[in-house]
Write the C-alpha cells for this entry.
Amino acid sequence: MTPDQIEALFTRESGEFLLARWGRPLVPIVFGVEDETLSTVKGAFEAVVALAGHKMAETDPELGANCMVFFFREWQELLEVPDLDRLIPDLVPLVERLVAAEANQYRIFRFEEDGAIRAGFVFLRMDAELSKIPAETLALSQVVQTILLWSDTAFRTQSPLAVAGNTTVLRPEIGELIRAAYDPVLPGAAQDASHALRLFARMQQPQ
C-alpha cells in the first residue's frame, strides 16, 4: 500500500483529510439480533480491537456503552428508540434523508476534545441486500469501518474484506493500517495529509 493509497482512505469527498481512532476503550452494545448473532458481532469487535492493540471494557464511566449497533427493518423504527434523539442530533431529518436515499447502513461518531473518537453509532437496515450477507462477514465489515474514522468514500469500490478459501478475512494491508493507526506514539486524530506518510512508515516495520 502506497502513501497515496493510505491518504485516499482518509480523504473525504470534500477534499478534507481526517483520521480519528478511539481514545477510550470500546464498550459495544448490540440491539435487534438473536443471541447467536450477538456473539458474532461481539467476537468481531474483540478480534479487531485486539488487532489494533486497543482495549475493550465492561462499561464506559461516562456513557455506559459507547458503541451502539442497531439492526432493524425500517429506518422509522429508530424514531421509537427511547432517548436516541438525545444521542443523535437531528434524528428526525436524518431518518428522512436515509429513507429518501434508500440507504441500508449509516455510521455516526462523536468526538473527544482532541478529535479522537468518543462514541460510535452503527445503523443497519436489513434489506434484501444486507440480509444475503453472512453474519460473520457483515459484523467484521462494520467493526472495521467503526474502529477508525475512514473517508466517506474509503470502501466504495473495494471492500476492506477478502475471501481466502471459504473464509472471509480482513485484507492484510487494511489490518496493518489499523495497527499502524493505533501506534501509541501517534495522535488520536490527524487533519494533515502528511499523517499518511507516518502510517506508511509504520506499516513497513516488521511486527
About this structure: The helical segments are 3-9, 35-52, 84-87, 91-100, 128-131, 135-147, 172-181, 195-203.
